[in-house]
Design brief:
With about 100 residues, this protein is an all-alpha fold. Helices cover about 80% and strands about 0% of the residues. The chain folds into two domains: about 30 residues; about 60 residues. It is elongated and about 70 Å long.
């Protein structure tokens, strides 16, 4: 029984160390300089999502004839979230 517990604890410790190493690597990649190509892609995601969200807010009354208010708000929030996520994810690319 003690051997089994020791094996389980050893496996948990190994998984913890691998996860810690992965997180450290991701942090290093995040703060490394982003290549120009990926910066442009991230900025494009953010700009397009902002334009779509602003357009949705601007044309809210016209869109209410086609969609419900909840659907319009969901599309606007989704647009903003996807743009921000796209910009954030491009920070993980770095020069090799």
């Amino acid at each position: 029984m003690i051997k089994v517990v020791n094996i389980v604890l050893l496996n948990i410790n190994n998984m913890y160390n691998k996860m810690k190493k992965t997180i450290k690597t991701l942090k290093q990649k995040y703060w490394a300089p982003t290549p120009k190509k990926w910066r442009r892609i991230g900025d494009t995601f953010l700009a397009v999502s902002s334009v779509l969200a602003i357009g949705g807010l601007w044309q809210f009354d016209n869109l209410k004839e086609i969609f419900t208010a909840f659907e319009i708000k969901s599309m606007i929030v989704t647009s903003i979230a996807l743009g921000a996520a796209g910009k954030f994810l491009t920070n993980f690319f770095k020069e090799e």
